[in-house]
Specification:
By secondary structure, the protein is mainly beta. Helices cover 0% and strands 35% of the residues.
């Protein structure tokens, strides 16, 4: 697992060479290298391995709590589901920009105004084939989605990026794999 302690883990990105003319270009941020402790992870062939913690017979999860995304940057993470030995596979992904709360104002949590500066996309792929499995994009700083089935039983790649030239923020990524079907509910 790659964890590098950097004294400038959440330092602002130097965007001097980025002109923002190509909002669809998210193939790595040369202008924003090593901006968090998970770097380098801008390539699907060299993602950061994420170990599960709090593993039980029912579920396992991991939270990337200290990541940072700059315009034009891709963050790739790899999670090994096969090693859990589950018979069914329910993947739940939650991604939060800055201090956004998953449950929002109803639970007294911060709510970010929708806009390009809060836009994020998370995509899930099979690592062996690079086949896309599921994805979500949101401009309000909160993503919450799930996937189910045997395609989620092996090694997965998760790609975090934004096609917005103004999106630059710290984020949290929570990945959970369950051995049962269950709902996610906000409990205030």
């Amino acid at each position: 697992m790659r964890h590098v302690a950097l004294p400038f883990a959440l330092a602002a990105c130097d965007l001097g060479s980025g002109d923002g003319d190509d909002p669809g270009a998210t193939t790595g941020a040369v202008a924003c290298p090593l901006n968090d402790a998970w770097e380098p992870n801008d390539d699907p062939d060299d993602p950061t391995d994420v170990d599960w913690y709090s593993v039980s017979e029912w579920s396992a999860y991991h939270e990337v709590a200290d990541a940072y995304l700059c315009p034009g940057e891709d963050d790739w993470y790899r999670v090994d589901v096969a090693g859990l030995g589950y018979s069914v596979h329910y993947l739940h992904v939650r991604a939060l920009v800055k201090d956004a709360g998953l449950c929002g104002a109803a639970c007294g949590e911060p709510v970010l105004a929708p806009g390009p500066e809060h836009t994020m996309t998370v995509e899930v792929y099979r690592a062996d084939t690079h086949e896309p499995l599921t994805a979500q994009t949101a401009d309000g700083g909160v993503l919450a989605f799930s996937g189910y089935g045997d395609d989620y039983a092996g090694v997965l790649l998760l790609r975090v990026h934004s096609d917005s030239a103004t999106a630059e923020y710290p984020y949290r990524l929570h990945v959970e794999l369950r051995n049962y079907e269950g709902e996610d509910e906000c409990e205030c």
